[in-house]
Amino acid sequence: MGLIRLLILGTLVWLLVRLVKGLLGPAQGRTPRRPASGGELRGGELVQDPQCGVYIPKETALKGPGGQLFCSPECRDAYRNQGG
User: Fold this and answer.
1) What is the C-alpha to C-alpha distance for residues 15 and 21, in angstroms, rounded to an integer?
2) 60 or 39, which is more confident?
3) Which residues contact 84 (CB under 8 A, 6 or more apart)?
4) What is the pTM of this model?
């Protein structure tokens, strides 16, 4: 019977420690996550492609007719062919 009480007590202590760590926020000494590609996280303005609706970074968008911004030459050409 003593072994069961010890296991239950150990489990309760472990759960209490996990709860306290979760409430206190991120653990000290942890490093922030990096993208899987190894690149850096960058912010920037996103624009929506008027043809397909995809959001892309403004600095990588292709300019089309009337100053519209597109994700690819295919979307730009399709938009142009539809009379946009």
Assistant:
1) 10
2) 60
3) 50, 51, 65, 66, 68
4) 0.48
16: three-class secondary structure by DSSP: helix
Identity of the amino acid at 19: L
Q: Give the per-residue pLDDT at 38.
A: 55
Tell me the C-alpha to C-alpha distance, in Å, between residue 7 and each of 1, 2, 17, 19: 10, 9, 15, 18
Return the biggest CA–CA distance within the chain: 81
* Average per-residue pLDDT for the chain: 83
Maximum mean pLDDT: which of 24-28, 29-33, 80-84: 80-84
Q: What is the DSSP string of 18-70?
A: HHHHHHH-SPTTPPPP--TTS-------EEE-TTT--EEEGGGPEE-GGG-EE
